[in-house]
Amino acid sequence: LKDEIREVVGDYLFDTRQFRTDNKDQLLADIYAMTAQRFKLATHLAAVKPWDFFMVVEMGPDRIHHAFWKYFDPKHPKYQPGHPLENAIRDYYVALDAQVGAFIAELPPETTVLIVSDHGAKRMEGGLCFNQWLIEEGYLTLKEPVTGITKFTPALVNWEKTRVWGDGGYYGRCFLNVAGREPQGIVQPDDVEALKAEITAKLEVQTDENGVPLGTRVFRPELLYRATRNVAPDLIVYFGDLHWRSVGSVGHPSIWTHDNDTGPDDANHAQHGIFLMAEAADLQSPHAPWKPGAGERRDGLSIYDIAPTVLGLFGIEPPPGVGRQAVAGPQAVAADSAYSAAEEAELARRLEDLGYL
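RE: above sequence
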């Protein structure tokens, strides 16, 4: 398959070389090249390979949101009216729609087409330095003061004096240093619930640098998910309801920042994505119902509805635990990691590159 892919599209771009960059012209060219390659290959494979289910993941919308959101959104704090890149996102969507349309035109007419996103996007107004906040609030203690912005690592921490630490990313993950659970835990199990409530109350009234409440939301994973594996975060934090990023590094002069510590970024992940479904034959028709007000709109859908929908199209009864009523599948006892230390490090690197850490 590798040789076949190379024959069809050359050196295949799984992703842009770097989407957190100030070289916007090169990034825009990379996004267009990646998308064109993706659909050229998808069209080839759909034509020459046998398949019942065909799935394409296109990274272009995600990358263009992160890199170009400030140019088109007047509410973005870094918006510049009339910037030459003001229409970059719109123009890409026009090009992407053309690619999707051309791909669908080649599918068997009886194909059911779903267009689904795994998350949405919204403007990033700033970042709250989560671990810096925990230091200032007295929950986290470092062995020594750091000079300049420094990536947060366990080696920096004085665990004998630390009750809480956090992770950076699109949202914050908050962990308590619980006795009997963490190697050097000091929070007694009987104190966990009170500490969670205390941190939640403080975070939810946290303001920006001008004293305006951020509107932060704090969640408990055990109340959101049917199953939590390994050591789940004790709290999940949406700073500014996801208009603010969780910045995990330490050594910042303030708990607030308007620069992302992993590189330029204009957008954050958001709660609401998209779900479209139609028959290929309808989309291939010159009277295709892709216009405002056409088709049937359904509100209240969830990403957990996708798997039962796909299975239903094949006449397969969803197994117990698949669907919105059982979002995380059967409970299971966590085993030791299936990955080596080197593989764990590589997974962490990839997650950080994607912005989840």
